[in-house]
Amino acid sequence: xxxxxxxxxxxxxxxxxxxxxxxxxxxxxxxxxxxxxxxxxxxxxxxxxxxxxxxxxxxxxxxxxxxxxxxxxxxxxxxxx
Length: 81
Fold this sequence. Notes:
It contains five helices and no strands. The chain has helices spanning 4-17, 23-32, 37-50, 55-67, 71-80. Helix 2 packs antiparallel against helix 3.
């Protein structure tokens, strides 16, 4: 989607409708990582807690850490996959 605000609203709505859904949390974390990293961390950590074996969630966490200059954290995240 090209409209970030609408995408964010729809993902939040999906999470509200099904708080156990992992995919919307991953997508919302990816969307928020540049503008609101603390909030993005909350969503990706919730996704990982709900499904620790999710390679997608761990990959996104690693990408988020790498984009913030945390190479060590990114490597640990990729090893967990």
